[in-house]
Amino acid sequence: MISERTLRNLRRELRRSLLAKIGIVVVVFILLMAVFAPFISPYSPGKQNLDEARLPPVGFSTAETREVTKMENGSVVIEGGEVVTEERTVYTNATAAHPLGTDGNGRDILSRVIYGARTSILVGIFGTSLAALIGVLVGLTAGYYRGRVDDVLMRSADIMLAFPSLVLAIALVGVWGQAQAPIPDPFVVTGLAPAFRSALGFTTGMPDTVVLPGTVIVVVALVNWVWFARVARGEALSIREEEYVKAARALGASDGWTVLRHVLPNAITPILVLATIQVAAIILLESALSFLGFSGADVSWGFDIALGRQYQSTAWWISTIPGLAIVITVVGLNLVGDWLRDALDPGIEGEGGV
Amino acid sequence: MSLSRFLVKRSLQGLFVIWGVITVVFGLRFISPGDPANVLLPPDVDPEVRAEVIAELGLNEPLYVQYWDFISGIPLGELGNSLVTRTPVAARVLAKLPATLELAIAATIVAIVIAIPLGVISATRRHQPADYGATVFSLVGISTPNFWLGVMLIIVLAVQFDLFPTSQRPIGVDGIVLLFVSGSLGEAVNGLTTWLWHITLPAVTLGTYFTALITRLTRSGMLDQLGQTYVRASRAKGLPETLVRYKHALRNTLIPVITVIGLQLGTLIGGAVITEAVFAWPGLGTLIINSINARDWPVLQGSLIVVAVGFVLVNILVDALYAYVNPQVAYD
Hints:
The complex is a heterodimer.
Chain A: H1 4-16, H2 18-35, H3 37-40, E1 61-69, E2 71-72, E3 75-76, E4 78-79, E5 82-83, E6 85-93, H4 109-145, H5 147-161, H6 165-176, E7 181-184, H7 186-189, H8 192-200, E8 209-212, H9 214-239, H10 243-250, H11 255-291, H12 301-308, H13 317-344
Helix pairs in contact in A: 1-13, 2-4, 2-13, 4-5, 4-9, 4-11, 4-13, 5-9, 6-9, 9-11, 10-11, 11-12, 11-13, 12-13
Chain B: H1 3-28, H2 37-40, H3 47-56, H4 63-73, H5 89-124, H6 129-143, H7 146-160, H8 173-181, H9 185-226, H10 229-236, H11 241-263, H12 265-279, H13 284-293, H14 297-325
């Protein structure tokens, strides 16, 4: 499926390109963060502590003018039966306990960024896989059979393309509601992560389920399968004319067998390149849906950006940090995509972005 | 195939796609759990009243009658009535359209004005600091969610430095034109300043992705053109370098760039929806989001149809333009 020559090209391009190396490091880092979240997250992402709300990240402090009770010699000042208050500038300093600060409900932002990676990666990988499955099936069928089948399938692809992907996604999620499936977190239910945490001295327990945003995954796939269909169709159109395909058919191989055994393996390279770019596009799409409050996710980078908006004049970091996490992840994926494209040169156009 | 036959064929395809779009939008209501009548009625309503409302909305008609009612009004510009306000959907969509178009056009202008020079500089000073700067900018630009960029611009430029307002659209181009026509020149100029002041951050927010994308395309297109034989020939015959670059190479680069700008208009509208949400910009995006939250079916369907049909029409236009400026194109 992936030839020796392809691997050689990949290695050569990787040696040459600093950006490709950076991309791989970033993507691997985010993946590890998502997988091992219950081991490394300092707190549970949902754990609130209103006494510690809006703590700034390490290296920053905030000054805020507040009305506070006037104190003299350690006791409250009372005049005419009323507690006297005064205006005072209250400085909030960062604490090492919350290196990236806390949000409006006193939840640890680092923990939310780590757990947010899971939502992004889950939607990115499952959404892209489902989109690829639908798109490749449609595209290979259209390209292999050509003629009327091709016309019908590709015209329906055109209809999908007439809707801006974000608008269609909003409409579909909006009308469908937000089905989510909590699945047990293997690291937590087996006791691996809790044991590791107590050995390190972490005290808070982790959520024992991972929320799989089912509707969002289906919707991003329905919106993005068309790109896979186009690429797969183009490949099938040229591969079906190859001698080995003709030979297979002459030997009596069925259409299904020919497509799966001969056409698909030879079309796989451009599909993989497209998939990499699509993971980035789908992560951006998920974050946009969550930002608008349509995804139903309560731990998601996009959702956290929206939550921070009400503190945009007092606590900039609440919106800023999850957004940086998105940018870093998507830059990493795009760099990997560029690397694959430069090394394999399938000559496809990518689409993405919100 | 001649240009006119190509256009006829393309228009017929477009018509088919538009029919498909309308049908998909019609079908959208049936995949939704819940009944449109519930939008209008309290849950404990008398069943007779309920049946009456359902009859009034035509929801008890056979499917093909509902479909025909839906589709037959559209060529006449009828998109039904809003469930919530009971006013015609077409009028509401039309009222919101200028705000979105303004935003989309302003963003496109921002993108073109920045991206094409940046791409050219990047290509002509390859492997110099300017090129690296432009490359990093375009990489980060295509990877940044625009709603987050909008929030960042608000935090820095509106909240911290108080240079721009955080949101709203107190006046539109239509209002400015009206003031201008009615002879109040001073107020028109005032209106224009207010408008520019309010649209800057949304336009930059929406335009950044396109700036990044077009910078990338212009750079690679220029590099490609500058390596062509005709460029070497022009240089060899002694044409000034500026003429070679800007008259010949750039012109040939721009043809595919224009096509991409046209094809990306869908992304632009999608981006506008979320940009409007960030800046409380009262356009189609805000209308779509509100209609989903209110379960106002006809408004959602009408907005989707207008957006998708507009996109199809623009694409046909771009294809025609492309075929016109580039005689080498094969019409198929």
